[in-house]
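Feature request disguised as a bug: please show the residue count (259) next to N-acetylmuramoyl-L-alanine amidase in the output. Example input:
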Amino acid sequence: MLLPTALSERAPAEARDVARVVERTAARDAAPARAAAKPLSGITIALDPGHQLGNHNFPSRINRQVQAGGFTKPCNTTGTATNSGYPEATLNFAIATKVKARLEALGATVRMTRTRNSQSLWGPCVDQRGRFGAKVGADLMVSLHADGARAGGRGFHVIATKSRKPWTADIARPSLRLAKALRAGLDGARLPRSNYLAGGTALTIRSDLGTLNLSDVPVAMIEIGNMRNASDARRMKSVKGRSTYAAAVVSGIRRYLSR
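Example output, currently without the count:
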């Protein structure tokens, strides 16, 4: 038999236990609501880090012809590099990884055409990349590249696909809107526009890229800068610079989605 004093001592402890249970239950129930409240919840985004570090080790594989939207092209290429040897494939992958982390933190599901950057790997081919967005049920796809132009040229440009039946007529308009949104995101980060093509608009429309031609979801390609330009190369090789690029790409995606 418990004496009244023992009962009075036990009551506060029981109350604290009940309070802790209620607190844990409330936190558990609130978690899905917090997740649902993230701005990109329910959105799937495909990212295509251009090239692969090991492409140059597999010439017969990357040079074989594949469909590219009514014509054929080589499966892939080696990409370019800075004058000091920093590879485009590595830059593309580094930026894509940062973009992925930022998008996932905002609630998006992110799928990448390649998940490793290795001398022992090659591809995927441009036809696989082009079809990837639809394959993973993406709402859009962004392909990340860097240019290898003359050393005096600097700055980014964005590429949208030309409307061509039966290939891209259904996605050309939203793809152009995506390209313009990405350009706005890069502009917002005060990154320089290309001074060597597109007349300062930093926007080109092309029909020769399999990654764009074979897409069945809105798609755009970014040439994030010119790797042969000293100023662009310094930014590309720095952690801060790559973070700036990634934040700008995410900003552009959010502009496109109005989220």
